[in-house]
Amino acid sequence: MIETVFMTAQEVADCLGTSKAFAYKVIQKLNREMEKEGYLTISGKINRVYFNERLYGGNMVHGSLQG
């Protein structure tokens, strides 16, 4: 399966083991952080690399923790 640049709320929910509604809240928070850093964001989606950096310290590669 090809990984896209952006994660959807469903992917975030699956990754975190939470509801899709909570995943949207996480995405909103991370998108606000990115906007403050000057990045453009897409509502309802989050950059996969940024998500992994913020939640796993950048040690997540292809669905498994590296370290």
Would you kindly provide a brief summary of this structure?
51% of the residues lie in helices and 15% in strands. The chain is built from 3 helices and 4 strands; from the N terminus they run βααβαββ.
3D architecture notes:
The chain is an alpha+beta fold. Helices cover 51% and strands 15% of the residues. It is built from 3 helices and 4 strands; from the N terminus they run E-H-H-E-H-E-E. It has helices at residues 9-16, 20-36, 48-56, and strands spanning 6-8, 45-47, 60-61, 64-65. It has a two-stranded antiparallel ribbon with strand order 1-2. Strands 3-4 form a two-stranded antiparallel ribbon. A hairpin with a 2-residue loop joins strand 3 and strand 4. Helix 1 crosses helix 2 (20-36). The relative contact order is 0.18. The model has no long low-confidence stretch (mean pLDDT 88).
